[in-house]
Amino acid sequence: MPFLLIASGILVGVVAAFAGVGGGILMVPLMIWLGKTHQQAVGTSFLGILIISVAALAFHNKMNNVIYSWGLYLGIGGVLGALAGAKFNAMVSQAQFQKIFGAFIVLMGLYLIFKK
């Protein structure tokens, strides 16, 4: 199990640092597939994302790719959204979560494919 998690972390790190996507898009489905509840998967993914984000921030900072004021504003809004999202997560069933999460990923994928 540790090897699978480390290998998955490498994939998530590459995708997150390359595309700026949250690692949870990959980590959450993996952990659900491995038998964790959606609440455990989401909560655990935040620890992984934190570690990956610090590393990616350090490298992007060296390349002068960080607009700190924007990041801080996004972070402030993100904290408020995270509080609401965590409460909502606790209110939905596993089946509801999987449908909502899956629909979000499909819609974002379609947007990226058809964006001009």
List the helices and strands and how they pair.
Layout: H1 2-19, H2 24-33, H3 38-62, H4 68-91, H5 94-114
Give an overview of the whole structure.
The protein has 116 residues and is mostly helical. The chain has one domain (2-114). It is built from five helices and no strands. Helix 1 (2-19) crosses helix 3. The chain is globular and about 40 Å long. The termini are far apart. The model has no long low-confidence stretch (mean pLDDT 90).
Question: In short, what is this structure?
Answer:
The chain is an all-alpha fold and 116 residues long. The protein has helices at residues 2-19, 24-33, 38-62, 68-91, 94-114.
- Helix-strand category: mainly alpha
Shape: globular
Mean pLDDT: 90
User: Based on DSSP secondary structure assignment, what is the total number of beta strands?
Assistant: 0
Gap between N and C termini, in Å?
41 Å
| Number of helical stretches of at least 4 residues | 5
Strand count, sense and closure of the main sheet? none
Rg, Cα atoms, Å: 15 Å
What proportion strand? under 5%
Domains (count): 1
Helix content: over 70%
H/E series: HHHHH
**Which stretches are low in confidence, meaning pLDDT under 50 for 5 or more residues running?**
none
